[in-house]
Design goal:
Helix content is 60%, strand content 15%. By secondary structure, the chain is an alpha+beta fold. The protein has a 4-stranded antiparallel β-sheet. α1 (3-16) crosses α6 (97-118), α5 packs across α6 (97-118) and α7 (126-149) runs antiparallel to α8 (159-171). The protein starts with a helix and ends with a helix. Mean pLDDT is 77; it is low at 153-158.
């Protein structure tokens, strides 16, 4: 995966964001298009499938969107407006090349943020640093416990087991 591809995916994602009530959001079909899904409207099933996890990451907003069919008929459908955390959660599940590139882009962005905090270019109070470290430690501990229970297999090979582990982690 070339750096240019990663940057292009990141730019497309950034361009598709809109602000609703002071929070950056992306429409489900826009995210699906960026991730390379052949039928972006079908992506709503993925959002619905992971609704519990997404709601744990923030309010899952729905809006009415007018759709024009291939026959010219107009009708209204419910679209999801995902916050950035929900978007990243779904992007990490995408098995498309663009999904992988977006995952790399977000990892690079997180590393840049972490480095800026460490170098003092971004100020974060000690309580917030402690909370972040605690949350990361807890998530790693739960993941490792559940990986052991799931036989240590990769997530894609045992989604049911890791789905339970994710729900357990989100309830904490």
């Amino acid at each position: 995966m070339e750096n240019t591809e990663v940057q292009n995916i990141g730019a497309a994602f950034t361009k598709a964001l809109t602000v609703i009530d002071g929070e950056a959001r992306i429409k489900d079909t826009d995210l699906a298009t960026i991730l390379g899904y052949a039928r972006p409207a079908d992506f709503r099933r993925t959002v619905t499938k992971h609704r519990i996890e997404l709601e744990a990451l923030g309010v899952l907003r729905q809006v009415d969107v007018e759709v024009i069919t291939s026959h010219g008929a107009r009708h209204s459908v419910q679209a999801f407006m995902l916050n950035e955390t929900q978007m990243m959660h779904l992007a990490t599940r995408a098995r498309t090349p663009a999904g992988k590139a977006l995952g790399v882009w977000s990892t690079l962005a997180l590393q840049a943020f972490k480095k800026a905090v460490e170098e003092g270019r971004i100020q974060v109070d000690e309580q917030t640093k402690g909370e972040l470290q605690s949350a990361m430690s807890e998530a790693r501990k739960v993941y490792l416990e559940d990986a052991e229970k799931c036989g240590g297999v990769r997530r894609s090979e045992n989604d049911a087991c890791f789905g339970k582990a994710t729900r357990r982690l989100l309830r904490r």
